[in-house]
Amino acid sequence: MTNNLHLHRFTITSALFFFLMGSCPLFSQMPIPKQSERLEQYLGFWVSSVDPKTDSIAPLPSIKMNNYPKIDHSTMSVDVFQRDGKTYKHTLIELIGYDTKTDSVFALGKSAQGEMFLGKGGFTSKKHWVMKDRDFTGRETMTVTFDFKHQTDVYVKGTDPQNEVLWETRYIKKNPKDKNIGIQLVSVHNKMLEDPKQTLKYLDRMGYSYIETFVYKDRSFYGLSPLDFKKLVEENNLKFTGSMTFYDLPTKDDKAWKKAMKWWKECIDDHKQAGVEYLTISNNQIKEITTLDELKRYCAYYDAIGKLCKERGIQFAYHNHSDEFKTIEKQVVYDYFIEHTDPEYVHFQADLYWMHFSDVDPIDYFKKYDDRFISWHVKDYEELGQSGKMDFEEYFKYSKTAGLKYVVAEVEAFNYPVWYSINAAWNYLYFNIL
Fold it and tell me: Of the candidates 36, 58, 194, 393, which lies 20 to 30 Å from 386 by C-alpha distance?
């Protein structure tokens, strides 16, 4: 990885929370053990910070670096561009990859000056990566060290064979948002409780376009008013697009119905004020339902909510878990909901994980009930795309048929540290699926 002085390389209630988590397996968050997995942290699009001591980004960064996966996420092409006035010139190209035989990372590169180089090295810890560069005469030219302060922040330094610093650059991830990938905040729930501003900043840098919440309570989001939460989200270059909301089916008396409708009107007004485009609801009472008459009441309830939403310019969707695929009086609950709600008012948010968990093929539903599924929760048994059980590529062939508008990543089973898994989810969707 050769270089020179001018070329840098580069509360909600616990009951509700556990209902959302369901029986999805939760793994212990282990350190990132493999060289190949650690290397994936370098994937994506980066810009240089104002200076190596800060993580701020200038309107026109001095350097841009685009790292695209090749073959898999442990091999990538690296293209570096340096600002020259108002334009950027291509100054360095590399191929970096992990070698299974030597358990090492190798690089082959060429600078704008025509100098080619070979690099070899690896991670000495989960956050520290060292590469030794040689030219094609075999002469050692430079040692490059990478210190990952976060999945979105890496400090890179080049030193000569005498250990004199040649250059240093701090890169901040700035992934693009052209594929409109959202994230359900249950994936980073504890992070949001600890530091919502920092959490949203990281999600922005990873390339997520919008968020979906599940914490609306007492007319607030994470303790903030609708306007204040909207402001916080937008200050971090995200959109507050979706929200899961919960109010059980009222009893049959008029008073209970009016109370429920009053709650929903306030809920919808709050979300409209916050800029939300769609609301979803799920049902944790299906286990108790035994008759079609009860299902009919739920359909009428969902139609009423959906009508209120539409009147205020918001879409309403039903979110499935696994109970929807049980049978009542020879009718599958989910099918009944779809067939007996008004498509003008009620859409559906397909949770692909729960469908697969229930031995249901989402594609069958997308083909049978076309244009009803405006949103998908894209979730796996492990990190997104890693279990090998779910064929996301095949599912997304039917996105247009389904009527998909909102792709929402969701990670609830973590093998690795949270931010590694959340970053990997964006990588998978952006580079492999969309």
Answer: 194
Tally the residues of the chain. Answer: 434
Long-range contacts of 286-290 (CB under 8 A, 24+ apart): 286/323, 286/324, 286/326, 286/333, 287/323, 289/328, 289/333, 290/328
Cα 387–Cα 389–Cα 392 angle in degrees, nearest 5: 95
pLDDT over 70, % of the chain:
93
Residue 30 has pLDDT above 90, yes or no: no
> Residue 109 above 70 pLDDT?
yes
**Nearest to 107, CA basis, from 98, 21, 66:** 98
Per-residue pLDDT tens over the stretch 309-332 = 999 999 999 999 999 999 999 999
Place of tokens 């790292």: 67
CATH of the domain at 157: 2.40.128.20
128 in Cβ contact with 144 (< 8 Å): no
b/e map 182-218, b = 16+ CB within 10 Å:
bbbbbbbbebbeeebeebbbbbbbbbbbbbbbbbbee
Among 152, 173, 194, which residue terminates a domain?
173
Phi, psi of 65 (to 5 degrees): -135, 125
DSSP string, 212-267: EE---BTTBBTTB-HHHHHHHHHHTT-EEEEEE---PPP-SSHHHHHHHHHHHHHH
**One domain for residues 253 and 398:** yes
Structural domains of the chain, count: 2
Could you list the beta-strand ranges (E) of 286-337. Answer: 315-319, 327-328, 331-332
Amino acid at 378: V
Classify 103 in phi/psi space as left (phi over 0), alpha (psi -120 to 50) or beta: left
In a domain, 130, yes or no: yes
Domain boundary among 148, 173, 198: 173
3-state secondary structure (DSSP) of residue 15: helix
| Residue 316: domain span | 181-433
**Helix/strand/coil (H/E/C) assignment for every residue in 354-412:** HHHHCCCCHHHHHHHCCCCCCEEEECCCCCCCCCCCCCHHHHHCCHHHHCCCEEEECCC
Mean pLDDT of the chain: 94
Q: Is the pLDDT of residue 205 over 70?
A: yes
235 and 366 assigned to the same domain:
yes
What confidence tens digit (pLDDT) does each residue in 131-165 have? 999 999 999 999 999 999 999 999 999 999 999 99
